[in-house]
Amino acid sequence: MAKAARVGQVKTRLAASLPAEAVVELYKCLIEDTLDLARSISTDALAIVCPASDVVDLASWLPTIEIVGQKGEGLAAGLVSAFRIFVDRRYRRVVALDGDSPQLPPETLDKAFQLLDGADVVVGPTIDGGYYLVGSTTLHAELFDTQRMGTGSALDSLVATAQGLGLRVALTETGYDVDEAKDLARLARELHLFPHRARRTAAWLARRPELRGS
């Protein structure tokens, strides 16, 4: 899941701690490293799902990957589109991954697909109550609550809805995504020790040691 890398439209909560152009530079690193993460495991297809208005810009930036425009606005609509498109293409397991958790071990992403052999829905929880990935064996549009998406209750809402539908839910390990300065500081410290996990982002952060915090 991604957006075009435009000033003022990506990682907006980092604007208070980074210049606008720097936010865009960081976002590009995060997305490109996330693509490397996705490519590091064996899958039958890989694509970016984005707002329809961003397709041209993303195709120009990332010409070697399929870019799919979503129907509707917002992340919930994007997730529904992702599952509808790839379930309709008859893929048996579909996993949607955010674009700002490139530090995840490949084993975590691979495990998400494996868990779908015995579960209907798999979720990667984040420490702030959201989730960094969600996978399913079919489309369940009602899982994605537009009111709670991006809030501290997004994970609980999704899990409760899934269980209410009688779906089997499995969780991967708890992780974090990069929304605020404290998240970026955590990522900077982690990648200072393990730069191979997200090489572009690690190199960008290495030029800004002050972002690691204390």
Description:
This protein is of the alpha/beta class and 214 residues long. The chain has one domain (18-203): Spore Coat Polysaccharide Biosynthesis Protein SpsA, Chain A. Helices cover 39% and strands 12% of the residues. The protein has helices spanning 20-39, 55-61, 74-88, 106-115, 154-164, 181-193, 199-206; strands spanning 47-50, 66-69, 94-97, 121-125, 131-136, 169-171. The strands form two sheets. A four-stranded mixed β-sheet has the order 3-5-4-6, sandwiched between helices. Strands 1-2 form a two-stranded parallel sheet. Helix 1 (20-39) packs antiparallel against helix 7 (199-206). The two termini are 31 Å apart.
Write the SSE topology:
Layout (H helix, E strand, L loop, with lengths): L19 H20 L7 E4 L4 H7 L4 E4 L4 H15 L5 E4 L8 H10 L5 E5 L5 E6 L17 H11 L4 E3 L9 H13 L5 H8 L8
Parallel strand pairs: 1-2, 4-6
Antiparallel strand pairs: 3-5, 4-5
Helix pairs in contact: 1-7
User: Into which percent range does the helicity of residues fall?
Assistant: 25-40%
What is the overall shape?
Answer: globular
> How many alpha or pi helices?
7
The CATH architecture classification is: Alpha-Beta Complex
* Element order: H for helix, E for strand: HEHEHEHEEHEHH
Name the assembly state. single chain
